[in-house]
Amino acid sequence: MKPIDLRSDTVTRPTDAMRKAMAEAEVGDDVYGEDPTINRLEELGAEMVGHEAALFVASGTMGNATAVLTHTGRGDEVILESEAHIFFFEGGGAALLAGCQTRTLPGDKGVLDPADVRAAIRPENVHFPRTGLLCLENSHNRGGGTVITPERTRALAEVAHEGGVPVHLDGARVFNAAAACGVDVTELTAPLDSVQFCLSKGLAAPVGSLLAGSADFIKEARRMRKALGGGMRQAGIIAAAGIISLTEMVERLPEDHARARRLAEALVEMEPFSVDLDTVQTNIIIFDVDPAFDTAAGLCRDLANLGVRANPVGPQRIRFVTHYEISDEDVDAAIDCISEIVSGAQ
Ligand code: TLP
């Protein structure tokens, strides 16, 4: 059996069209602004998310770090949802690189309440840090791929802007979120001051993310990217794959969502697992394993022995992610493997 890799949508390999585009890419020195393929990708990306300009960066983490650095000053406070990727999984970059402290607020399945954000924005007072930035995450990874709707996005932007605070979106999977809401992605991105979105998750490029915002913001972000060592040269070679991501890979995302749903519905039927189907809105499934049955690590080991790879995200919690290398047959085979383990243990 071919291995079924549900660890992440980052595991996808470039498509044949991407490899061809990469081999044929026209390139130049991007630090001089002379890589035509990067320029094309940046223009296309900015236009798609409804912003003036965009910057090609090596990763989602670099895009988020560049955004935090560009928006804030030392000692500022950054408001984040308490399970946000920027807070949880990015090496403390906001503190390490931007000298910011983080203020986390619990969300409902990863989604912040505008009233909580309003209450967390610091008034002017010599004792307080300045609230420098609000970061949102759509879809929300640790929330289970949950979505912030266009209405909630606008409401959150409004309270932040009323308090003079810019808003950055960690939109690593924002095209998944838009597909789930059935809206153009601009509904989720245009009301915000900057957005980072990944080409190398569900969109299957080998490398890269884009950071989008106003022309002035991106001009400054370009300096920050350089300071982070992210000024690349003939990187049109990789940007070429990103253009295919945006032109060919966005439309198929609902297939991944349907497969995630099917997998989640099968898990719900199995005694040792609990999954909140309300959270299964995109291509991520997070579910809990009854400790009387096994630990998350133990079940992942048993699954790996049967050719299904998955990551524990807590002692009793596992994440599955669907992507373009997971077919309907793979979903069936994964369900069979899980059933086999469950029935073997009884
Ligand atoms: N997430 C990865 C791991 O880091 C957990 C994954 O497998 O899901 N924002 C969000 C919401 C993300 O999920 C990720 C990657 C990033 C940012 C960072 O992107 P990269 O890995 O390109 O730095």
Describe this structure in words.
The structure is a single chain. The protein is an alpha/beta fold and 346 residues long. It has two domains: 16-248, Aspartate Aminotransferase, domain 2; 252-345, Aspartate Aminotransferase, domain 1. The protein is built from 14 helices and 13 strands. The chain has helices at 16-24, 36-49, 60-71, 85-88, 93-98, 114-120, 150-162, 174-181, 186-189, 215-227, 236-248, 253-268, 296-305, 328-345; strands spanning 4-5, 53-57, 77-81, 101-105, 131-137, 167-170, 194-198, 209-213, 273-274, 284-289, 308-309, 311-314, 317-321. Strands 2-8-7-6-5-3-4 form a seven-stranded mixed beta sheet, sandwiched between helices. The protein has a four-stranded antiparallel beta sheet with strand order 9-10-13-12. Strands 1-11 form a two-stranded parallel sheet. β5 (131-137), α7 (150-162) and β6 form a beta-alpha-beta unit. α6 (114-120) packs parallel to α7. The structure holds ligand TLP. Ligand TLP is lined by residues 8, 10, 59-61, 85, 89, 137, 141, 170, 172, 198, 200, 209.
